[in-house]
Amino acid sequence: MEILSILETLEDLVEKSVAVPFSGKSMIDKEEILEIVKELRLKLPDDIKQAKWIKEERQKILLDAQKEANSIVQDAEGKIASLVDEHEITKKAYEQADEIISNAQKNAREIRLGTKEYADGILNKVEQILNDTLDVISMNREELK
Predict the structure, then answer these.
(1) Is the pLDDT of residue 19 over 80?
(2) What rounded mean pLDDT belongs to the chain?
(3) Is residue 33 part of a domain?
(4) In total, how many domains does the chain have?
(5) Which of 126, 110, 123 is nearest to 56 (CA)?
(6) What is the DSSP string of 103-140?
(7) Is residue 16 part of a domain?
(8) Residue 70 — pLDDT band, cuts 50, 70, 90?
């Protein structure tokens, strides 16, 4: 992500700043900081759009998984109906249908959980970046005061 790179640049600028003796503070080029903040503002919407896209993709994956599970269930029901005539075959068909339904539900659950975790991870990273950026901006504003 470009925001992380910009934040690293900002961090480097702060770390390389000239220390003011006896104050624990540093002197930083105001124009350079403002330019970095401006660049951050420009990049944030892109990352937010990416997080939104991930959320939409997650929803599509969940819908596809549900459709696939429904299709598998319908296929299993069709097979069961066609094998009702023979008792032993019917018994085996029920067992297979249950197994297929169980596997489909398990796969759908795993896909759902995986996409939720992935989306949550991305959103968590974006949240961390935003919080870090706000902290840096707050610190810079405090220093300006």
Answers:
(1) yes
(2) 86
(3) no
(4) 1
(5) 123
(6) HHHHHHHHHHHHHHHHHHHHHHHHHHHHHHHHHHHHHH
(7) no
(8) very high
